[in-house]
Amino acid sequence: MEFPHLERMRLRRCDSAASVPQFCNSPTVIVMVGLPARGKTYISKKLTRYLNWIGVPTKMFNVGQYRREAVKIYKNFEFFKPDNEEAMRIRKACAAAALKDVSAYFTKEQGQVAVFDATNTTRERRAVIISLAKEKGYKVFFVESICDDPEIIAENIKQVKSGSPDYVDRDIDEAMEDFVQRIECYKASYMPIDDEKDRKLSYIKIFDVGSRYLVNRVQDHIQSRIVYYLMNIHVTPRSIYLSRHGESELNLLGRIGGDSGLSPRGLKYANALADFIRSQKITDLKVWTSHMKRTIQTAETLGVQYEQWKALNEIDAGVCEELTYEEIQENFPEEFALRDQDKYRYRYPKGESYEDLVHRLEPVIMELERQENVLVVCHQAVMRCLLAYFLDKPADELPYLRCPLHTVLKLTPIAYGCKVESYFLNIEAVNTHRERPRNVNINRDTEEALQTVPDHV
Amino acid sequence: MLDNEEFMLDSYPRELTQNPLKKIWMPCRNGHIAQRRVCMTNCPTLIVTVGLPARGKTYISKKLTRYLNWIGVPTKEFNVGQYRRECLKIYKSFEFFRPDNEEGLKIRRQCATSALNDVRQYLSVEGGQVAVFDATNTTRERRGTIVKFAEQNGFKVFFVESVCEDPDVIAQNIVQVKLGSPDYLHCNSEEAIEDFMKRIKCYESSYQPLDEVLDRDLSYIKIMDVGRRYLVNRVVDHIQSRIVYYLMNIHITPRSIYLCRHGESDLNIKGRIGGDSGLSARGKEFAKHLRKFIQEQNIKDLKVWTSQMKRTIQTAECLGVPYEQWKSLNEIDAGVCEEMMYEEIQEHYPLEFALRDQDKYRYRYPKGESYEDLVQRLEPVIMELERQENILVICHQAVMRCLLAYFLDKTADELPYLNCPLHTVLKLTPVAYGCKVESVYLGVDSVNTHRDRPENVNVQRSTEDALQTVPAHF
């Protein structure tokens, strides 16, 4: 490719293989606001996980953690009393330390978004953050969670506070009682974001766990995405079932991609899956498949309505479609090595990369967040991407996550994360998992390249 | 409801067959394919605008309707003002809208009822999925009537209220869209503005905005000050969530969108589709002309986007400004037909070639994509285009057709045949309720890549009939 002579200043290109363009924007600080037990940390962790998954380097800074490191032992709620000067000093110092780490994350670690997770309930504290951000050229976006439903708050305390390091030596009732007092300490000085006084700030107010939202001055693309995400998540208990299609004819032959039908064992799995789903007695289960024959055949046996998503199609292996690994090594040894060097970013010639897949799957994730009980029948690479989102796996681990055939993963959100239950439905299948070989050098020999290829017919 | 249901009595697994046009696997019984509609909505949705005159309700209604239709959700708007004009024939003055004008009120109520009847027809009988009921709907009473109507018919209701007190915005609004209204054809600007301001006054005393407490069980979005602030209440499903996201991303800041294709490529010259070739000599010439054109346009803060294919990137490189690559802007994937000439496609895949001519929008190349797939792929690009201001998108023929169809509200049947020749820049400028298009041919020769729908689309047609409309190439 010949480049014409450039007269102007150095060309700066921003590649946008990931789903969010403009990595060259100013960093953003997301600032949580709200009384204790309003879901700030839940939102912070979830948002951080989502942003990292879509390729925006994000890190969470929980001021409570800093406080625990400074104070070591938590006695009781008295620490949080507004007249406790000693404690006030420590808490201010912790917030400052956290903000310092936020700056370091942006300048030294190429972070794009920092989530500053603390109560930030006073106008004064928020002003400190705004002024620091202004000085350094960071954008600020506030996320305030407002909730006065005593049941939700009690549930919250039970789910996440009683297991907190602060209450490790207390029983549930003691923890509950102390925490309620803790909340009282904040209430007197709580100044919610004011629609009049704070009309120049960018923020979203979340009322009653998402029943209502107030959104003010969204400045840019990433804030718009964050708002959209926050407006789609919910806390209603539910489970997500992930499974691959039953073993396919091409699986048996050790060939990747294609659009083949199920093998006899694959059909057996489909039946076993139907039995399993029935035994789970799930209310209002939605079933999703890809547009490929093998997932649809699998879903057919369930005897329920299912929805086909093209976005759930397996990764497109381009020129390597329907080849065995041995054939890929024979015909495209350099490509094969490059893939082992960086499996996440490697794109098959005329095909896709895992990074492309994540981009493609983002609307699926968004809809999964909106839904309740769902069974997704998909493919190996697709399932790895979805799993990485739910289990917060980084890009280098994602392409090597284990998603064997004939195994259903049941994901149930709890506390700040996700419980995983794995069910192998007892129907034999080939192994399709290829580990990263030791030698990823382009000059490696065939034996080294094929070292980790699983058996096939 | 869905044919799928009757098949649930069959034994499993059912046979699967692949629909030859869309390449979708469907269960079939006795060779009969079940038509499964994958739809985003369960029951139809009635979107109801709320707000004083000149608050952008019709602007929002039209834009939302255009967007929903483009992403494949059959949507229609119902503007009560239109019904009133049909009923009244001649608009005299604002006095018609006075709250004490009994005769006027009666007519207006009738018009609203008539419009709602047409809504029912569209949603329950004609297969529409979303109806946008565009009127002021400023009283709680009127909204109550609509909610009851929706309940009776099994429609979901979603309110979109536009609140604005900025006199500049309102004045600008009146100038842009009211002066040209049929109501004011025979008035000069001053008269029209004066009358319209009095018209707004007629509504103000009885205006009951959506209330956070009284209306807490309704689903709605309140848009304040042209998008500075939003209040969103009780979004209940996917389509409402998408509508909210869309409404929160659009703006009315004046700007222009420039669309063009890459310069002529080596494969273009050979009459081959797809691939990832570089620019021909004439294509490079075009890139230079494009650079000159852009400089002459003197555009403030222009963003430049390309696909990840060599030919668009080479074109952008010539401009000497930063650009952003989007994989979503890549040309339609022609699957097994990649890099073939139409003559070769006819030779190797005559059936596919005919199917494509039968329904070019829905037709999916084997192991490739359809225009319908392309639209889905391009939706995030459109969303981001809405957020942006001045922007130049260097893309490809099929992609450009999809984007153009969105901006110019072209239907799915027209879309695949929109004319997007090489070496021509389209400048789109939003104006009033639509989009002004200026087409600038940059004076560099190129092949024609536009293939019209031939007369004979039958799978039995002769080669000559099939290749009738293939453009000339080397």
UniProtKB/TrEMBL annotation, chain A:
One of its GO terms (molecular function) is 6-phosphofructo-2-kinase activity. Substrate binds at R244, H245, G246, E247, S248, E249, L250, N251, R294. Pfam families: 6PF2K, His_Phos_1. One of its GO terms (biological process) is fructose metabolic process. In the C-terminal section; belongs to the phosphoglycerate mutase family. Homodimer. This is 6-phosphofructo-2-kinase/fructose-2,6-biphosphatase 1. It comes from Amphiprion percula.
Automatic annotation (TrEMBL), chain B:
GO terms for biological process: fructose 2,6-bisphosphate metabolic process; fructose metabolic process. The active site is at H262, E331. Keywords: ATP-binding, Hydrolase, Kinase, Multifunctional enzyme, Nucleotide-binding, Phosphoprotein, Transferase. PROSITE patterns: PG_MUTASE. It comes from the Eukaryota. Substrate binds at R261, H262, G263, E264, S265, D266, L267, N268, R311. GO terms for cellular component: cytosol. The keyword Membrane does not apply. This is 6-phosphofructo-2-kinase/fructose-2,6-biphosphatase 4b. GO terms for molecular function: 6-phosphofructo-2-kinase activity; ATP binding; fructose-2,6-bisphosphate 2-phosphatase activity. Residues 40-254 form the 6-phosphofructo-2-kinase domain. InterPro entries: 6Pfruct_kin, 6Phosfructo_kin, His_Pase_superF_clade-1, His_PPase_superfam, P-loop_NTPase, PG/BPGM_mutase_AS. In the C-terminal section; belongs to the phosphoglycerate mutase family. The keyword ATP-binding applies. It comes from Amphiprion percula (Orange clownfish).
